[in-house]
Amino acid sequence: MKTHSMFNGGFVFKYYQLVLALAFAVEEINKDSNLLHNMTLGFDIYNADLRAWSAFENPFIWLSGQNKIPNYTCMAESNFVAVLAGTSGMTSVQIGTLLELYRFPQLTFGAFDPALSEHGKYPSLYQMAPKDTSLAIAMVSLLLHFSWNWVGLLISQDENGLSILAELREVMDKNKICVAFEHMISGRTLTQVINIMTIQNQINKSSANVLIIYGNKEYLLGLMVYLGQFLITSKVWLLNSQCDLCIGKKYFLLGSFHVPLIFSYHHEHIAGFTDFIREVNPSKYPEDFYLAKLWFLSFNCSHYESDCVMWENCPHDSSLEWLPVQIFDMAMSEESYNIYNAVYAVAQGLHEMLLHQTEEPTMGNGRWMVPSPAQLHPFLKNIQFHNLAGDQVILDEKRKLEAEYDILNIWNFPEGLELKVKIGKFSSYAPHGHQLSVSKDMIEWAIGTTKTPHSVCSESCGPGFRKSPQVGKAVCCFDCVPCVENEISNGTDMEQCMKCPCDEYANTERNQCLPKAASFLAHEEPLGMALDCVALCFSTLTAVIIGVFVMYQDTPIVKANNLCLSYILLITLMFCFLCSLLFIGRPNTITCILQQTIFGLVFTVAVSTVLAKTVTVVLAFRATSPGSRMRWLLVSGAPNFIIPICTLIQVTLCGLWLGTSPPFVDTDAHSEHGYIIILCNKGSLTAFYCVLGYLGSLALASFTVAFLARNLPDTFNEAKFLTFSMLVFCSVWLTFLPVYHSAKGKVMVAVEVFSILASSAGLLCCIFVPKCYIILLRPDRNSLHGFKDKIHTGRKKPS
After folding, report:
1. Residues 558/563/566/570 CA torsion (nearest 10 deg)
2. Residues in domain G-protein coupled receptors family 3 profile (predicted)?
3. C-alpha dihedral over 23, 327, 212, 161, to 10 degrees?
4. Cys bridge to 538: 2, 454, 506, 577, which one at CB 3.0-4.6 A?
């Protein structure tokens, strides 16, 4: 039995490996006693020209003999059962109609062609290559691996090109890879010449340094040579396996300044194939004139005038292994691997058909009948076996496996080397995230370049920035905008910045959220310590003044204006100074409640005491007449009732405040950058301002009464001091309100403490310091006699 093989194109030494793969498979099968018992497999080889007018010439010779009479042969019987078509799908299309007339099984060993998968149009055709459905995913995976997101597309203008273009667009869109430019390449020479200048200019002007080139040899052969010569350097070419044939010797001799990365079908090594090629020579196959020509041209065998090559004049140990890899590659190519599987598929089909025939009655005179090619189809469709390399071979396209890809890089240093090196692999059967493996160190980039090429429309936005799309451009083109305050981006090319949680803040680089530190006016910090010292110093001063008053309680200046009220005011002022300590330190529920209630009560007592003292001065001046009601009020101690009455009102307001919405511990994470302010929330602001307003009303009343009584001529009249003290008090608190509401954090608390200390110090210094001055430094004035001498001196007329 024979298989018939057709190879397209002229004779190229590197394509001769396809012939050797066919011979290797046939010899291996014929040696196998378990396959095709008592039958020898053979083959004939014909050239199938790609030119349409001569496409059927050799198939007619094969089918009809040298007479070239269609549908007639002088051969006694035909024993051909299958045809192995060439590397191009165009060959199968051109001869497919003719072969279908005879139902000849046609097995193609080129790349998988979806156009040939239409069973109704090509019912007798079988593709040996695995499905090419994951090529787009494999290419995009490589783009993602090198962070290339700005890519040009050069696609053949045929059915396969349109199919891969749609797949590429879909996968690229999902992975945010943009197309910088796109060209459909026509197979017509005239159209290529017209468009090639446009393609060249756009590629050279584009910032995209990566090109995906897809097509078969017929489309891209001339284009590849042209691009290799005239394009700017350092472009990376991502090619499908057929484009490997387009990169010819001429390209490499010109010097490759580009980086071809070829996606070739992965296959295991066939044991014995390299040894078989190493032993091939013209003496072993004397009828093979192709081999003789290869030997003659490669090894400079001498010959005589008769043009008869004398093999004894060739090197005795010459071998195809001696040839450079760009001339002849010893490693089995994917086309040779498909031929090897195709021959085994035919042999397996014949074997199954023979087994089937042995189970049926013999025909004719009892001799076994030679099967027709049409009888082989049912068995080929169901073929499924593992070859000697362990790979599964399936001809039925519905059950055919998806392709795995070897990623090849062509080394051309030194120039002209043209060595294919496997630098990676893609397998769609591997777990997600592990489908692609690449050895970057194995890649030979463009000549004079050691770094990985860059192909992006816009540089990546680092941490602290976000992408801002450029209007009217692809999504890969963007500007980098810094994150706003309290937002971060901790990765590259972030679409949006992330807002930091309330208890964290963004650092200055806007790439990390840091925990906020608790902020409150602590006793340990300088400001807190200063305020503590001031409060304690004034409290001590108040205690000293109380001691002085106790020691000199019988003196006129101490007795004036009601000694009891003076003691009450001094003790209250001491509490006013000490209550400021409640505002310093980490707030808690108890201190928050005590801060406002004690502040309101002690200051109410202090202001109401000042009011009582002022009223006492007024009553003392107006109670000089015997039997006057004012005298009765003064003697009865009526001014002393002002304090409990005013205090009771404030206690009622504070009670309502605590009963409805008391103060509580709160946090403020927004007012101060990098800090969480721990503060006391006032609870009910209405209650707070009622307490403050009531205190302000008392202060205003005290100031008014004191101001009206400031000039009353009474012994030791302190109305002027009371007036000035209340002026200081009101000024402090009127200044406090706007400053308090504009401050933040611990400064706000410090302002409130300062206001408490300043107003209390104003009352203490304005009312009691002058008295202490007289008591301690001017004792002569602390008597009625001294006072009268002062009066007389003041009234003495000048001489």
Report:
1. 90
2. 527-791
3. -40
4. 577
Helix (H) or strand (E) holding 278: helix 273-279
Average pLDDT of the residues of the chain: 81
471: tokens are: 């209007």
CATH at 95: 3.40.50.2300
Residues 18-65 pLDDT 10s: 899 999 999 999 998 888 877 888 888 877 665 544 555 666 566 665
Residue 349 belongs to domain spanning: 2-131+270-283+329-394
Distance separating alpha carbons of residues 710 and 707, to the nearest angstrom: 5
**Tens digit of each residue's pLDDT (9 = 90 or more) over 658-689:** 999 999 998 888 778 788 888 888 888 899 88
Residue (of 205, 185, 568, 264) closest to 423 by Cα position? 264
pLDDT at residue 55, rounded to an integer: 54
The string over 724-746, giving b where at least 16 C-beta atoms fall within 10 Å of a residue's C-beta and e elsewhere, is bbbbbbbebbeebeeeeeeeebb
Tokens coding 297: 């041209």
Burial class of residue 485, CB neighbours in 10 A (0-12, 13-18, 19+): exposed
Q: What are phi and psi of 292, to 5 degrees?
A: -65, -40
User: What is the rounded CA–CA span in Å between residue 23 and residue 5?
Assistant: 11
Residue 249 has pLDDT above 90, yes or no: no
425's torsion region: left (phi>0), alpha (psi -120 to 50) or beta? beta
Do residues 97 and 116 make contact, with C-beta atoms less than 8 angstroms apart? no
Q: Percent helix, strand, coil in the chain (nearest 5)?
A: 50, 15, 35
User: Do 694 and 617 share a structural domain?
Assistant: yes
Contact 258, 234 (CB under 8 A): yes
Peptide bond into 414 cis (omega under 30): yes
**Among 74-83, 252-261, 558-567, 763-772, which range has the highest average pLDDT?**
763-772
Q: What are phi and psi of 266, to 5 degrees?
A: -80, 140
| Pick from 102, 5, 81: nearest CA to 370 | 81
Q: 721 or 58: whose pLDDT is higher?
A: 721
Using DSSP bridges, classify how beta strands 125-127 and 150-156 pair: parallel, antiparallel or unpaired: unpaired
Would 188 be classed as within a structural domain?
no
Q: Evaluate whether 672 touches 648 at the Cβ level (below 8 Å).
A: no
Assess contact for 711 and 638: CB atoms under 8 A. no
Average pLDDT of 294-315?
62
Q: Which residue stretches of 661-684 are H helix?
A: none
> Measured between alpha carbons, how far is 535 from 192 in angstroms, rounded to an integer?
94
Residue 50 belongs to a domain: yes
